[in-house]
Amino acid sequence: QVQLVESGGGLVQPGGSLRLSCAASGSIFKINAMAWYRQAPGKERELVADSATGRSPTYVDSVKGRFTISRDNAKNTVYLQMNSLKAEDTAVYYCNTKGVTHYPLYVPFEVWGQGTQVTVSS
């Protein structure tokens, strides 16, 4: 099995910064993509940033130029650096990872983190 552990959420003032982390562990043979989603109250979950292996990262328009997704492949960890935060960035942020397990042998997986709250407020 594969598990994700997220950290880094919290309360920040508008214009501030936060860095989210998500570490994958377990029987991982290969990770194909790691991504961050968010869900605000009363809204659907949306893809914020995606980092697929061998491809350039992609971002939702509302965070371009402010958020940066990065990966440490040796640690199976993905980060989301969030700068110039706005009130509308307030949401629960979820990590998502897709890959292939080492055991059972070469079985595709997709797992979600538990979510971390980000609140932007003065």
Plain-language structure description:
The chain is mostly beta strands. The chain has no helices and eleven strands. It has strands at 2-7, 10-12, 18-26, 28-39, 46-52, 58-59, 67-72, 77-82, 91-101, 108-112, 116-120. The strands form two sheets. Strands 2, 4, 5, 6, 9, 10 and 11 form a seven-stranded mixed beta sheet that branches. The protein is elongated, with a radius of gyration of 14 Å.
Q: Keywords, please?
A:
122 residues; mainly beta; seven-stranded mixed sheet; four-stranded antiparallel sheet; 0% helix
Quick overview of this protein structure:
With 122 residues, this protein is mainly beta. The chain has no helices and eleven strands.
Distance between the termini: 41 Å
Helix-strand pattern: EEEEEEEEEEE
Number of strands: 11
Shape descriptor reads: elongated
Largest sheet: 7 strands, mixed
Structural class: mainly beta
Helix share bin = under 10%
Number of helices: 0
Uncertain ranges: none
Strand and helix map with partners:
Blueprint: E1 2-7, E2 10-12, E3 18-26, E4 28-39, E5 46-52, E6 58-59, E7 67-72, E8 77-82, E9 91-101, E10 108-112, E11 116-120
